Request: fold
Amino acid sequence: MSYLLKKIGYSVLVLLGVVVLVFIMFQGFGDPARMIVGQTGDKKTMDNIRSDLYLDQPKWKQFVLYLNDVSPVCVHSQADIDKKELKGFFTGGEKKFGIKIPYLRKSYQTKKEVGKVLLEALPGTLILAFAAMLFASIIGILLGVLAAVKKGTWMDTTAVFSSIAGISAPSFFMAIIVAFLFGVVLHSYTGLNLTGSWYEIDEVTGARYLSLQNLILPAFTLGIRPLAIITQLTRSSMLDVLSQDYIRTAYAKGLPKRRIIFRHALRNALNPVITAVTGWFAELLAGAFFIEYIFGWKGIGKITVDALEKLDYPVVMGSVLLSACIFILINLFADVLYRLVDPRIKSAY
Reply:
């Protein structure tokens, strides 16, 4: 329990650091209101934006008010609660103490709450990251086991060379190559579209329907780098485990080779792989920006890039905070899972 509380405490401190950095980057310098409306913006519009972003207040107070907005624990007046349409539990007099859903402000382009905009895009990013990680984990573990068992053969050399190439190739470069090759050159054979999302909209009825065919290219591209790393980690860990005495004892007892490899060796070799899988899943969720943008996949990455192009700062700030929360939660889960899998870690705390 103390281990979990320590990890939660560290996570809260990291998240607070992210909030500080986001505020400094997007609101600490320059005039965001002028950048949003441009040089031709009228004074009334700029005054409204400055009021929404608290730019008419001293810097320290701007940060305190921003922290009060994004924090689930807050103090707000009834006027603020009504104006911002805050959702949660509030109690008190003129200044109410409350526990609420974090308020990430409103988009200046769509006029929607940033939280709603991001939640609409989140399923697309989750589907893409899960599919990419599932592909990378299954193929990467199998290739790593094969390379370790067939050490020194052409299979091992091919797996190692392919993994090095996969790690070295930038995601945006691979996205362009994969999109052009399978979505344009070989489109008549693959039937895969260059762009598309996990749902399509019927032009007549307006209804949405699943279109998971569009998932293949972005998931494959996004999964290349974690696939390469998981392959190398599995190979290295398996080689270490296969040299242990208990594996030689299992062979001496006459146990089937497949059982020794998958039940005894692989199980004990998975600790570093689990860490890589959970860590990479967090990175895929938080960092699939270029992949989503290139393939037109409707997710948080594409929403963020579009917002950057339009200087829609509330959406960008909210996206960075949401990505940081996802990354922190998954790494917290990885720490707990790693401790459950490896009993040796329990003794260290």
About this structure: Strands lie at 73-77, 88-92, 95-100, 199-201, 208-210. The chain has a mean pLDDT of 81. The radius of gyration is 25 Å. The longest strand covers residues 95-100.
